[in-house]
Each structure stands twice: as structure tokens, then as C-alpha cells.
Design a protein that fits this description.
With about 100 residues, the protein is of the alpha+beta class. The protein has one domain. Helices cover about 35% and strands about 30% of the residues. It is built from four helices and six strands; from the N terminus they run αβββββααβα. Strands 1-2-3 form a three-stranded antiparallel sheet, covered by helices on one side. It has a three-stranded antiparallel sheet with strand order 4-5-6. Helix 2 packs across helix 3. It is globular and about 35 Å long. The two termini are about 25 Å apart.
Length: about 100
């Protein structure tokens, strides 16, 4: 969680005991805030029956860079731009969930 603390300080983000809070200006010029749970990973479940656990640090970076996009789209663009492979994709079957 040290990396998270460094990101919070570097970007001047807010936090409380359970959330990292990312303030941003929407397309209409209004201030908004995005609340992310302080967990090691954020799981995104896709409609195709699979899920990916993204590191919180990557989720914060993607949200800062693309605050108006869906999180899944922001992460995809961030990984694509940096030529980094996305975390492992897992099937949303009973076998994988129990592991």
C-alpha cells in the first residue's frame, strides 16, 4: 500500500479510512469526486463471463488519466498506451471462484 500512499501524495488526492478520492472536472465544468475502495485489487466482471483483478495503483492512474470513461475502458487505454499486458483474465466459473 506504499505505492498507493505515494500516488495520493503525488497527485494531491484525498482519502479517508476506506477510500481513495479522486476529484475531477466533468465535461460540463462541474467538480465531481470518484471514490475507490482501498483494496489491493479491484475486480471488473465482464459480460462475456470472465473477470480481471486490477491493481489499485493502476485503477487510480487510469481514473486520473480518463475520469470520464468507464473504468474498464480507461484501464484498456492506459495499458494499450504503455504497451503493458493486462492482468490475467479468469473465467467466471465455479471452479475459478473457489480457488
Amino acid at each position: 500500500m506504499e505505492e498507493i500512499e505515494e500516488l495520493i501524495k503525488y497527485h494531491g488526492l484525498e482519502e479517508d479510512s476506506e477510500h481513495v478520492i479522486i476529484p475531477f472536472i466533468d465535461k460540463n465544468g462541474r467538480w465531481k469526486r470518484c471514490f475507490l475502495l482501498k483494496r489491493r485489487f479491484i475486480r471488473i466482471v465482464y459480460s462475456e463471463g470472465h473477470f480481471v483483478d486490477y491493481p489499485l495503483s493502476d485503477v487510480i492512474k487510469a481514473t486520473i488519466k480518463y475520469p470520464e470513461l468507464l473504468l474498464s475502458e480507461a484501464l484498456y487505454l492506459m495499458y494499450k498506451e504503455s504497451n503493458v499486458d493486462t492482468p490475467d483474465v479468469r473465467s467466471n466459473t465455479k471452479e475459478c471462484v473457489e480457488q
